[in-house]
Structures
1.
Amino acid sequence: MVSFSRKSEKENRRSSGESDRLLVLHNDDINTFEHVMEALCEVCSHDGIQAEQCALITHFVGKCEIKRGSWDDLYALKELLTQEKLSVTIE
């Protein structure tokens, strides 16, 4: 029987040319929780609970991974979130 772990799946993805990136939201002292949650719902299609959890994690930890995907997909989301005055990076 062959056993596959998450690590081997990630290695397989990398070796096949697919590279997932992370869109990361960073904490700031400017935006309100409501604004951050509304932007995550509108731009990233998060539901209310997911947006609230991301906002809280960002507030208490300093950053939160909000999306995973290709560079092109995440870049478009990053631009929209930046227009909403949120601090986001692609890692």
2.
Amino acid sequence: MSEEKCGSGGIFLAFLAGGLLGAGLALLYAPAVGSDTRKRLSAMAEDMKKKSEHWGAEIKQKVEEIVDEESAVLKVAYAAGREAMEREKAKFEAAGEEAPAE
């Protein structure tokens, strides 16, 4: 059987979608006047919109931080690799100059 990997973001979104669906169904099936139910649904939708905007901003900030950190790590690794290449190139060239001509 194949294993499917699901990140924490996917799990969170599934949990959030399930919660919203459950809350919406509970409001629709609760004994209340239609206008009250519509007002409650509208208020809940507005609240979720505000929360999702806040979450979106937080997620964007965290992604930018991760990208910045990984970019810095890659730059350091690239510089170290380039430096190692230059050292090895210098050794190789020095060994070539010391080799006796045939």
